Amino acid sequence: MSSEEISLPLLIIVGVILIAQSMFLFLDARKRGHNYWLWGIIGLIQAPMPTLFYLIFVRKIWQKKD
Length: 66
Hints:
By secondary structure, the protein is an all-alpha fold. The chain has helices at about 10-30, 35-45, 50-60.
């Protein structure tokens, strides 16, 4: 896929998704005392895997209830 095949609206949508994800990870990690700069930068790389890893392994949203 060459750069001529990628449309401008698609690039804008992908950019907005990555910025929004990065901001969420940065702000939530800072609020919870985790390494927020790392999560903010990782959130800029790809979507949605950094958010899923953060929610599962850092925030532990699926904890076993005793």
